[in-house]
Amino acid sequence: MLPTITIDGRLVADPELRFTPAGKPVCSMRVAANDSRRLDDGSYENLEQIFVNVSLWEQAAEPAAEAFRRGDRVLVTGRIYQREYETRDGGKGTSLEIKFPTIAKVPAAARPAQGAQQRTAATSTNAGWDTPPATDEPPF
Predict the structure, then answer these.
(1) What is the largest CA-CA distance in the chain?
(2) Residue 128 within a domain
(3) Are the C-beta atoms of residues 72 and 11 closer than 8 Å to each other?
(4) Are residues 9 and 53 in contact, defined by beta-carbon separation less than 8 angstroms?
(5) pTM here?
(6) CB 140 within 8 A of CB 103
(7) DSSP 40
(8) Is 136 a domain residue?
(9) H-helix or E-strand containing 48?
(10) In angstroms, rounded to a whole number, what is the distance separating the alpha carbons of residues 65 and 53?
(11) What CATH number is associated with residue 14?
(12) Quick one: which of 28, 42, 77, 86 is 20 to 30 A from 61 by CA?
């Protein structure tokens, strides 16, 4: 069984909704997550940043494409896959993708104060969050 991962990050673009040749909807998103530290002068330095692709299928695809926008902070939990591909110049690349995710917006009220660390508990299944974010919006 592939590992389950939780990503706390921001959408780098609006979701893309498309349909397979069989007519099944799929919503693709790209999430950026970074690790930073506070410097002595009060500013922040980004240490590392990763980009993860997220795919939502069938019943979850269309509502997610309507609910999420570029810049939204999201929590995504799902199975992580690594895929290799060939770049335009003939080189090899690797991407990470979360399939069959549970995804929810992080409401502004639940965001930590500047510089504070936030930890989120997630179940090891695709059932949802142990402690869901307080929001009127449904998780997808």
Answers:
(1) 56
(2) no
(3) yes
(4) no
(5) 0.67
(6) yes
(7) T
(8) no
(9) strand 44-57
(10) 14
(11) 2.40.50.140
(12) 86
| Number of domains the chain is built from | 1
Answer whether residue 46 is part of any domain: yes
- Residue 14 near residue 75 (C-beta atoms within 8 A): no
Cα 53 vs. chain centroid, distance in angstroms? 7
Q: Which two tokens stand for residue 124?
A: 């090891």
Query: What does the pLDDT read at residue 109?
Result: 63
Q: Could you tell me how many residues make up the chain?
A: 140
CB-count burial class (<10 Å; 0-12, 13-18, 19+) for 32:
middle
- Quick: pLDDT tens for 72-88: 999 999 998 888 989 89
Rounded Cα distance, 140 and 134, in Å? 15
Q: Cβ–Cβ contacts within 10 Å for residue 140, how many?
A: 22
Q: Is 117 helix (H, G, I), strand (E, B) or coil?
A: coil
Reference 74, options 17, 28, 29, 116; nearest CA is: 29
Q: Which pLDDT band, with edges at 50, 70 and 90, does 2 fall under?
A: confident
